[in-house]
């Protein structure tokens, strides 16, 4: 059985949404994540289950991509335009991501973790 840990909407730079995703609230708080050889900065973020947030990904050097399978995120990251994902995590847990576009010798060392905590009362 497939368990979905988040509702995800991938946005283009123009703000349009990709097919198959429900357009989520786009005025959500934003977290900016930079991709560079050989790290994501920040390398970890903490989100709250049930709260919508916009993740903005920017490449500081060569093209990258990020995949966080447990949150159904898989987007290319270029310098311009930025890549944006609007996400509402529905389950608590630690979700590991990685760069999925080869960017050099230490490409396999690039890691990213999304910590999702239970919704506060």
UniProtKB/TrEMBL annotation:
Protein origin, superkingdom: Bacteria
Cytochrome oxidase subunit II copper A binding domain ranges (all copies): 24-121
Coiled-coil intervals: none
Database matches in PROSITE patterns: COX2_CUA
Gene Ontology cellular component annotations, sorted alphabetically: membrane
One GO molecular-function entry: copper ion binding
Pfam families according to UniProt: Cupredoxin_1
Identification of the protein by name: Cytochrome oxidase subunit II copper A binding domain-containing protein
């Amino acid at each position: 059985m497939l368990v979905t840990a988040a509702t995800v909407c991938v946005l283009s730079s123009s703000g349009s949404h990709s097919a198959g995703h429900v357009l989520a609230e786009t005025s959500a708080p934003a977290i900016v994540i930079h991709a560079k050889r050989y790290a994501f900065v920040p390398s970890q973020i903490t989100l709250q289950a049930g709260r919508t947030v916009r993740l903005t990904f920017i490449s500081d050097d060569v093209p990258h991509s990020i995949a966080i399978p447990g949150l159904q995120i898989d987007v290319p990251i270029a310098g311009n335009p930025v890549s944006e994902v609007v996400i509402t995590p529905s389950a608590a847990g630690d979700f590991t991501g990685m760069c999925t576009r080869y960017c050099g010798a230490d490409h396999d060392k690039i890691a990213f973790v999304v910590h999702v905590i239970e919704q506060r009362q």
